[in-house]
Predict the 3D structure of the following.
Amino acid sequence: MPLSTARFTTSDPDRHLARIVERLKPDAQVTGPGRAKVTLAGGGCSVLAAGDEVLVIAAAADAGGLASVQEEIGRRLLAAGDVQAGDVQAADVRAADVRAGEGERVAWAEAVSGEQVELVSPIVEDYLLAHCTPADEVLRELAATTREVTGRSAGMQVSADEGALLSMLARMVGARRAIEVGVFTGYSSLCIARALPADGKLIACDVSTEWTDIAKPFWKRAGVADRIELRIGPAVDTLRALPDEPAFDFAFVDADKPGYPAYYEEIVPRLRPGGLLVLDNVFLGGRVLDPAFQGAAQVAMRQVNDAIARDERLDSVMLPVRDGVTLARRR
């Protein structure tokens, strides 16, 4: 359970953050307004200033590493005089209170795993679905059929609000040529294809017809079957077989997570300037946030998330939509 937080309540969070960074140099650096990062041998932490508090988010690969990070941060703040009383008690990673300089109060919270982070609460989900353009009959029936036929695998289908978002984004960029990696039962394909003009084309890539066969009659009912070209086979091979030129206006990736870095590398050069790449599941249920998870999917997703943030070809934003959605626009 290698994630834990501590909070400083303070009248001047920006000044307090700057002071923390100064005390923790050379391991700390400011990464943006109200944000800093601390890198230590056993892990690290983010420091955020907002409202009337400074939030410290500690992370490590295991409980022992987290304890070391908490102990090191607490020791150095105590030595610097920022914390005047109390004990961080990080050795057993339990909640502890510390009093800091100006009467601030700090508490290391109980350690949690990334998959315990509630990305979208049921209360928020209920409200947002009630205030989103509702899915029509075809989409509702496709979603119901997917649940009935695929069972627990139905969770791979995008939600109604995310489908509406895909349609809106494709329309906003004026998409005519689109590509999708990962079709499943075709809900997202239908949403994207509907946003294209009558002569538009969506290349939909999947490795199997097992689930895509469910999609076809619904595409036909929606009147978009002629806009969707389904290509079965490894998506990376399909992408590499395409002309190496910026021909696509819109791309959506929602497939096997270890393949994301390769899909991203193949798609970006094929996006026109102003074209939009959308990646789904960039949080992986919160596991991407937690360095304890080192499976192929988590490692690959962190790799692509970091690469997109640094990519000078793109302007990008990561949104807390469902399981995390990244929008990356080709410059």
